[in-house]
Fold these 4 entries.
Entry 1:
Amino acid sequence: KAGVTQTPRYLIKTRGQQVTLSCSPISGHRSVSWYQQTPGQGLQFLFEYFSETQRNKGNFPGRFSGRQFSNSRSEMNVSTLELGDSALYLCASSLVVTGGAADTQYFGPGTRLTVL
Amino acid sequence: QKEVEQDPGPLSVPEGAIVSLNCTYSNSAFQYFMWYRQYSRKGPELLMYTYSSGNKEDGRFTAQVDKSSKYISLFIRDSQPSDSATYLCAMIGGNKLTFGGGTRVLVKP
């Protein structure tokens, strides 16, 4: 079974631009979560989507948004990029929404975003 | 103060030694406990998943949970150079997965 895939793997943007990242979950998984990973803050939860609905949200500004499509694929958008948005953005998929009995999350390789 | 505290390391051990990792947490709502391994330039990979106090073994890995002390541990026996990675503890509570900062482990041949 194919794992979680993320595109693109690397991205360089300048301040003020916007960016869209894509995540394809494991086949059959309906939950997709997004995380930001930086050396200083570690892995921080952004949001979780299940059946095209946002179920949970972390403490990030409204510049960070996401959506999920009917095939469970998800996109994350960051508008008006800031230098501090440089990070590894990870996507994870699971069978059910976080907190459920079978909610093991499987991570993709991430998208490394550099903001200049 | 972070909800989950984890020593960042690095932790350097000789090949064959036991690696001992731990995390403390403050949120009593955490119910499920996990350990992930992350190699450089890769996403985290789930190693162990537990939901009750006590020990759980899987090959060379043993996960230990003490809910009364809000303390979890991971032990790696007979460590190998291929175990060199960052190990992250993670916990689920309130429908969110919260990670520790990760401990970098280096196993020297």
Entry 2:
Amino acid sequence: NAGVMQNPRHLVRRRGQEARLRCSPMKGHSHVYWYRQLPEEGLKFMVYLQKENIIDESGMPKERFSAEFPKEGPSILRIQQVVRGDSAAYFCASSPLTGEPYGYTFGSGTRLTVV
Amino acid sequence: KQEVTQIPAALSVPEGENLVLNCSFTDSAIYNLQWFRQDPGKGLTSLLLIQSSQREQTSGRLNASLDKSSGRSTLYIAASQPGDSATYLCAVIVTQGGSEKLVFGKGTKLTVNP
């Protein structure tokens, strides 16, 4: 079991470019969550998705950020027109079901640097 | 709004010591609680998951307790080793309106000196 796979591990973008972060959940997991860790801050919830469905995006900035989890392929977190403040580590987690005592499994993260 | 606090923010101990990391949360209506370890520049490794109906969980040298009524959890590490040096994160799992999410504390950075 390869675990939660995130790529790229590191991403450098110039201000105004687009960033695409990918996450493949663990085999058998149908729930994906994205979290952001700003420097010297704790991890903050961004969005919760199931296949083809956004369940909760209450933690997502209203502009420039979007997420999807298509029927086939990885979940994508997309940041348009990046700014310096978007520089952070973005982590993806997956779980098999909600309401069950399985806990969450996290990927290694994507470290986004905006220059 | 659920808030999670971890004390201390940093801790430095000599190898071999037993130590306790503290976590408190403001709303006792949690589903579960999970402790993680994060090494510098790395992802999160799950250490222990405590269901809301449980009072403690053990794995090797680690023991985590949960007291929902007082809004507290502790992570006990026995016979600490330099390899235990990392940031330890406490997170409560909350459910609301069909959604589920983790609310994290800012962590305790542990250094175990040889």
Entry 3:
Amino acid sequence: ETGVTQTPRHLVMGMTNKKSLKCEQHLGHNAMYWYKQSAKKPLELMFVYSLEERVENNSVPSRFSPECPNSSHLFLHLHTLQPEDSALYLCASSQDYFYGYTFGSGTRLTVV
Amino acid sequence: GDSVTQMEGPVTLSEEAFLTINCTYTATGYPSLFWYVQYPGEGLQLLLKATKADDKGSNKGFEATYRKETTSFHLEKGSVQVSDSAVYFCALSNSNSGYALNFGKGTSLLVTP
């Protein structure tokens, strides 16, 4: 049990589908993050939420839409994705910058 | 801006060999430094951290010392095991840039029996 739970673990979706990734933490952390990890590429920070407000959006295409309804939950809504969006999507949470993050196990997304 | 550079992999070692994975950083102020490990098919796990100069982080036989004079945070282990095969990420966080961690590209380690 890592403290950060992501569902589903695996997802296959067509380019016209709409799906959502879910992340949940019960660590009392006040910041949550979405990262994208593609083969042969560095980890890409997508979104940062601090106290349920989005504080960073790193030029992510609008087909990715985050939602943070409360400090324990974070969603990533997906629609009309492209095959190049296939990757491991990692959620993380933190309490403060010098404690580091706690990561979930990730959702392996395949777009067909 | 802040950045982290770590040695390119893959690194292949025999069991019980000595491991060093180099990491250097560029940052203003007083960043905190981290090593994360990612086992196949899993997310990243915090391996160790150091929050100020000359601190030594250690965990599971791994060590890294925060060297401000050389802006480095090299990961070492005296005797690696097959189970240490994974990808290792050096990372930095800085109060100047809020919460966000800045990751290196990762170094893949394969330990053979």
Entry 4:
Amino acid sequence: SQTIHQWPATLVQPVGSPLSLECTVEGTSNPNLYWYRQAAGRGLQLLFYSVGIGQISSEVPQNLSASRPQDRQFILSSKKLLLSDSGFYLCAWSSRQGGGYEQYFGPGTRLTVT
Amino acid sequence: KQEVTQIPAALSVPEGENLVLNCSFTDSAIYNLQWFRQDPGKGLTSLLLIQSSQREQTSGRLNASLDKSSGRSTLYIAASQPGDSATYLCAVDYNDYKLSFGAGTTVTVRA
């Protein structure tokens, strides 16, 4: 069966510090990978998605970046965090099943920028 | 812009009552629609995926319908239990790898 991992689970970082969040998927190959952010009281915002190694698409302009160094690894980074980067970060994966890209989510990382 | 709306934003029902959650979308050219559940502080759990060629999907006490022509999907939860308390989100896939999410309906089932 497929499993998706995210770490760390929680993170408190000062403004201006760097960020690295990691997501890995087990039990599948060549998945589509996604990073979402869920800010307090707001819906899910798609930040990045990747359909293959080294292929990253950005959805919103921001000071975040993403990389996919391996098939089942997706990393979210920032060089300098802003207060507005606080939120709940979710990684997800999908693969085509009978015509539909059903998405599966990880447990999330709670980021607080102070 | 493809918009997904969920009304009401919150719902409180007594245990045993059937739940009806609504999702509407502005662009009817969808590829599939997915319903999720989110518990506080947790990730999203996929409940049901309805492909554009289907009119409904069922899993246990859950039944989701899809009417593309009217831009609506409804999630029915039969005989609600306190454990059903959570936020339910619908998301629409327009066959471009990405999901457009509604803001969710927060459900409280009172014992």
